[in-house]
């Protein structure tokens, strides 16, 4: 898969200030090139999903964007300022995958410490702590020690510390990792609420989470950016798709081979039948109308009863698998 050039042509962003900018970011660890020439921009008000298989370079990229790693080449900027600039760091809230919490501290005292480290004092500090306790649904837990909380509530404390200085940008690395389904929904809903007045870059392996809340998707594979666009744009780029299921006739692989031979079919993939049929295939086609007519003609001539002939858009999972297919399976160093 060819890398996406560092531009916004694949996904026009809404008008607004560029708050996050990666320009030609590259980073290596010994012989391993974890990130190679990654470039993109995130504008004010965007909630962007950042996807990639394990070892793709996501965490390394996010650490460069947040100033925790220095790139070998390229630049990372927040609101036009290099991330090393203290003025840029004040506009950033970062929740790493492994949330650094002082677990023996009470929630309110930990957040008070975080606010102090961000330079808040007196009434401003107290107001900031009260604001994030309310915003992250931590009422009733402020006087609890962090180690007594469930993992979901510890994650809320992590979000609260990232928000305590009221940053413009939130960078969230796997915020729902290891949570049960109920807590995943709660954290996802919280992130969606935060995105109403924050710019959010969200790294996650949970694709439904991205489909639910993100209007733009970046996909990294082998350290390179291979997709940038809205889910609808990326689905359209995957080509027209048809799903075909027959009640009688050839088995799955045989059906796929037969359909792949049609003029209008670019690719035929065997998928499990859903309705008790004998075989089911997903087709990538040039024109769904022409290909559907060819499929109907073939089924009629072979005597295959059609149970399903349906047009569909590529799912985010299909897009992800297509764009990351064949990428190197290197384990990310950092």
Give me some keywords for this one.
11 helices, disordered C terminus, four-stranded antiparallel beta sheet, 27% strand, Beta Polymerase, domain 2, alpha/beta, Rossmann fold, six-stranded mixed beta sheet, 334 residues
Structure description:
The chain is of the alpha/beta class and 334 residues long. The chain folds into two domains: 18-229, P-loop containing nucleotide triphosphate hydrolases (Rossmann fold), CATH 3.40.50; 239-313, Glutamyl-tRNA reductase, N-terminal domain (Beta Polymerase, domain 2, 2-Layer Sandwich). 33% of the residues lie in helices and 27% in strands. The strands form three sheets. The chain has a six-stranded mixed β-sheet, with helices on both faces. Helix 3 (107-117) packs across helix 4 (122-135) and helix 4 (122-135) crosses helix 5. The relative contact order is 0.15.
């Amino acid at each position: 898969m060819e890398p996406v050039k560092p531009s916004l042509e694949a996904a026009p962003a809404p008008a607004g200030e560029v708050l996050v900018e990666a320009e030609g970011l590259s980073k290596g660890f010994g012989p391993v090139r974890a990130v190679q020439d990654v470039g993109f921009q995130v504008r004010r008000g965007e909630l962007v999903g950042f996807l990639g298989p394990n070892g793709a370079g996501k965490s390394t990229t996010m650490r460069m964007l947040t100033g925790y790693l220095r790139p070998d080449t390229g630049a990372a900027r927040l609101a036009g300022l290099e991330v090393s600039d203290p003025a840029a760091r004040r506009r950033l809230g970062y929740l790493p995958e492994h949330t650094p919490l002082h677990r023996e501290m009470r929630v309110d005292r930990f957040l008070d410490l975080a606010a102090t480290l961000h330079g808040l004092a007196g009434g401003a500090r107290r107001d900031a702590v009260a604001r994030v306790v309310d915003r992250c649904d931590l009422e009733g837990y402020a006087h609890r020690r962090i180690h007594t909380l469930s993992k979901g509530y510890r994650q809320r404390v992590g979000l609260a510390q990232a928000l305590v200085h009221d940053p413009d940008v939130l960078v969230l690395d796997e915020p729902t990792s290891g949570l049960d389904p109920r807590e995943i929904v709660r954290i996802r809903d919280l992130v969606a609420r935060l995105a109403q007045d924050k710019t959010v870059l969200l790294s996650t392996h949970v694709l439904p989470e991205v489909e639910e809340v993100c209007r733009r998707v970046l996909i990294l594979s082998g350290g390179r950016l291979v997709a940038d666009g809205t889910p609808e744009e990326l689905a359209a780029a995957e080509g027209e798709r048809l799903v075909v299921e027959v009640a009688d006739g050839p088995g799955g692989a045989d059906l796929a081979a037969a359909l792949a031979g049609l003029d209008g079919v670019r690719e035929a993939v065997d998928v499990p039948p859903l309705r008790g049929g004998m075989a089911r295939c997903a087709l990538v086609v040039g024109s769904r109308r022409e290909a559907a007519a060819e499929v109907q003609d073939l089924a009629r001539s072979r005597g295959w009863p059609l149970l399903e002939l349906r047009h569909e858009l590529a799912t985010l999972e299909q897009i992800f698998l297509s764009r990351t297919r064949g990428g190197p399976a290197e384990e990310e160093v950092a």
